[in-house]
């Protein structure tokens, strides 16, 4: 999970360096092309079944992941880095909510209080931070919803498919969809220039590393102990914003970010545990 956190933090930084000249769906396309090549290389080398075993949930994981990442890239391009990441950190809340339906997990009454704390943090950020556009705030929440669905799909695949096969379904679905958006003119793709080519390649490699190790972590038996490490990402984001992009926040906005992360962490550490027999 630590490798994944560092990989995602650096990937987010690369996306910010790319700016918003290249549209988000095109970023997803280039990220997918790199991931497609790396995944196929690994699958061929390990002689794995590229289409996997549990294909229904592999396809759903791919669709959910594509929707989540595309929405997230839009927020990364138009919001300060740390704000975009904090909003996306609502995903564990939606993960828990969907898990009650998909994985038959139980949500206790006090967990709803923790959820309210996190959403209060989002309301605080939006209410006092003028740089937060409502449209991209909503897109960030949409990204969190679909990320929660994707994580549940990974849980469904824990005992059936290799982590790289799970990751492989993202570019398998994203590449043709994003290419079609560009070819039909629905999204105006632009030709990368200069260092953008290197940054796009770096974005794809970093995301592949982060996705594979995140999937390994989510498929491990010690998920509850590892998941909290994901929130180290906000330390990287705040540092990048302050030292590289010169972004500063008032105390109220910082408090809102704290409420978001605090609510999620409370839910993580106080969630109901299965008995040994149930496990």
UniProtKB/TrEMBL annotation:
<feature type="transmembrane region" description="Helical">
    <location>
        <begin position="57"/>
        <end position="76"/>
    </location>
</feature>
<feature type="transmembrane region" description="Helical">
    <location>
        <begin position="29"/>
        <end position="45"/>
    </location>
</feature>
<dbReference type="Pfam" id="PF00892">
    <property type="entry name" value="EamA"/>
</dbReference>
<feature type="domain" description="EamA">
    <location>
        <begin position="136"/>
        <end position="268"/>
    </location>
</feature>
<feature type="transmembrane region" description="Helical">
    <location>
        <begin position="110"/>
        <end position="128"/>
    </location>
</feature>
<feature type="transmembrane region" description="Helical">
    <location>
        <begin position="134"/>
        <end position="154"/>
    </location>
</feature>
<keyword id="KW-1133">Transmembrane helix</keyword>
<feature type="transmembrane region" description="Helical">
    <location>
        <begin position="197"/>
        <end position="214"/>
    </location>
</feature>
<keyword id="KW-0812">Transmembrane</keyword>
<feature type="transmembrane region" description="Helical">
    <location>
        <begin position="251"/>
        <end position="270"/>
    </location>
</feature>
<dbReference type="GO" id="GO:0016020">
    <property type="term" value="C:membrane"/>
</dbReference>
<dbReference type="InterPro" id="IPR000620">
    <property type="entry name" value="EamA_dom"/>
</dbReference>
<keyword id="KW-0472">Membrane</keyword>
<dbReference type="InterPro" id="IPR037185">
    <property type="entry name" value="EmrE-like"/>
</dbReference>
<feature type="transmembrane region" description="Helical">
    <location>
        <begin position="226"/>
        <end position="245"/>
    </location>
</feature>
<feature type="transmembrane region" description="Helical">
    <location>
        <begin position="166"/>
        <end position="191"/>
    </location>
</feature>
<protein>
    <submittedName>
        <fullName>DMT family transporter</fullName>
    </submittedName>
</protein>
<feature type="transmembrane region" description="Helical">
    <location>
        <begin position="82"/>
        <end position="103"/>
    </location>
</feature>
<feature type="domain" description="EamA">
    <location>
        <begin position="1"/>
        <end position="125"/>
    </location>
</feature>
